Amino acid sequence: MTVSRNKLTKKDITNMSLLSAVLQLGFNYERMQAMGFCFTMAPYFKKIYGDNTEEVAAAMTNNIDFINTEMHMATFLNGLILSLEEAGEDRELIRNIKNGLFGPLAGLGDAIFWFTLLPISAAIAVSLNKQGSILGPIVYMVIHFFGAISRVPLGHLGYNLGTNAIDLIRDNATAITKAAGVLGVMVVGALIPSYVNFSFPETFVIFDVVPVQGIFDTILPNMLPLGFVLFLHYLIKNKNVNAVQLIFGIIVVSIILSFFGIM
Amino acid sequence: MEITLVQGLLLALVAFIGSLDQQMEVFLIFRPIIVCFFSGIVLGDVQLGLSSGAVAELAYLGLLTIGGTVPPNPLIAGIMTTVIAYTSGVSAEAALGLSLPFALLGQWIGMILSTLYSGLMKFADDICARGDVAALGRLIALAAFGKALVSAVVIFLSAYLIQEPITVLVSQFPEWLIHGFRVAGNLLPGVGLALLLKVMLKVDNVAYLFIGFIIATYVEMGNVLPIAIIAVCITFLSYINSKDRQAYDVGGVDDDGI
Q1: ipTM score
Q2: Which of A125, A218, B100, B182: disulfide with A140, CB 3.0–4.6 Å?
Q3: Chain B interface, best mutation among A129, A130, A174, by max B CB count within 10 A
């Protein structure tokens, strides 16, 4: 069965890039920017597939996973994913590319926008403020207005990169799917220690002197976050526990453990 | 000086718009240097807005949400620094210190909402399964306006109605409850990552999960770029190896090119 796909225009990508400002709306600790990331592309999935709701639903479902990246870089990723979706690339490939790239891109974006542009703009504006000039806030707003719209060229960059690479991807489909799978899984493995913080306080000791956390750290640092994620994975995959039960279970248990000083 | 009802409502409006921008981090008008300026305009003292903005911006510089951690809320801190300097006549520096309980309250509320909003993902999943673009938009708008409304109410209460009781409340709030939500916030990304693994993890790539994990555990790195480069190198090597094998293994096992 062949699925018909409409082409996106340059204007679509510009509009999508502007819409990508919603990335962090609906932010939550379970999947972070998932809702905004998916919603940025959803209208364009609809444009690609028209009345074929089944394909729109499949594309949306493919993009509602955990994601946490720097917002300008998210727009780049949105553009890239739209180009692959438009070309009818394998969704597993798209998913793996996304999961492999969002972490490294976040590092790049943070370095440019939050560790460079923000301090510089603040230093300029604060010095103007101290002279009592209303130019301070105005300059600050102008700088960050340009920072905000810089996501438009980034969206086009991602889209064009994907479009130009389509033939390359097609010719090496199996190799690239496998490479993207390795990239995605390895990056997720590396994200576990930085995103999941599962540790007991130093005050939680057994036999009056032995800190529990110290025992785990001696065996393998971060083994608790890893074990926790693998345990959740087991519950979800093998025991069919749904995420809502897990979320509220975790919240209740966290508060109880906190009350007794165990965590 | 006293704050009038109209000024209280206008400050709440600044907080509402500021909160939407704070969630998106798009125009950065939620930063102290901007909200102090607008608070100063509302209170009729632009110079006060400028001086408190300079002080609060410097204090909160580098405390932006990076990697999911929530700092004491700069939006609430900015507005309240200006408000406290205006009502009590203290210097901007002193007002910044006095704004801390409100910034903490803002941080706690943000953390609790981000924890509870995890429950919205079930609705998001259902909406995606239906392919209902408009419904996803409504869900996001509801979540965003909900957070913004809470910020507006906090500012209205703090600036206009019950400034003193809130300071007392924050100092007496049970630490274990806030800490409990912080613990939950640290654990919840585990659910998101486990859901990711549900679709990604296969027998032939599970080893890479552990390789990535071990490297990130033992090697100090600012971001995961090095891991990504290693992953690309590994797949490149295995690709080259499989090509070599194909070239030399005459009539070898058909392994679909990998």
Answers
A1: 0.79
A2: A125
A3: A129
